């Protein structure tokens, strides 16, 4: 095909392929408005449509040497716009998944921290309640529930019968449960496990 047989658009595209900024601006003004409306319908966001449009023409400029002047240029632009809109939604989906992962991790971390604080608070309540036990009950409780000694071992240390140790423990546990129940604090699962370990 001779140069004189080129259409106006093909002539401009040839100039673009050779690096003409004037040709680029000509094509931008010729097609940008229609492409913008197409993108706006695709992404439903004016600012995003404008951003994609600018990126689209940047791609056209960077890949100008790949343009086939025998093919309808506007159709070429619309194909790029379609692909970029799809890429935009894929990016949104990835960001959404990342956000959900982040939110899940931070929620779990927050819950774990709250559990630890709740457990610490429960431990403090328990220690305070233990300190209010009568001396013999407190000693029996600490020997058996904290130090892990058997009723027999505690009885020998305290010079009392194993049955008396048992009675001290029953009354101690009853007192501690009542104190914690009346504390007005809602016990978390982690705190309950802590109580079970001692009570």
TrEMBL record:
Keywords, alphabetical: Sigma factor, Transcription, Transcription regulation
Source superkingdom: Bacteria
Ranges for domain RNA polymerase sigma-70 region: 27-94
Domain RNA polymerase sigma factor 70 region 4 type: residue ranges: 125-172
Signal peptide: none
Keyword Transcription appears in the UniProt entry: yes
GO biological process: DNA-templated transcription initiation
Pfam families cross-referenced by the UniProt entry: Sigma70_r2 (PF04542), Sigma70_r4_2 (PF08281)
Keyword Iron-sulfur applies: no
InterPro entries per record: RNA_pol_sigma-70-like (IPR039425), RNA_pol_sigma-70_dom (IPR014284), RNA_pol_sigma70_bacteroid (IPR014327), RNA_pol_sigma70_r2 (IPR007627), RNA_pol_sigma70_r4_t2 (IPR013249), RNA_pol_sigma_r2 (IPR013325), RNA_pol_sigma_r3/r4-like (IPR013324), WH-like_DNA-bd_sf (IPR036388)
Gene Ontology MF annotations: DNA binding; sigma factor activity
Family: Belongs to the sigma-70 factor family. ECF subfamily.
Name of the protein in its database record: RNA polymerase sigma-70 factor, ECF subfamily
Organism the protein comes from: Pedobacter xixiisoli
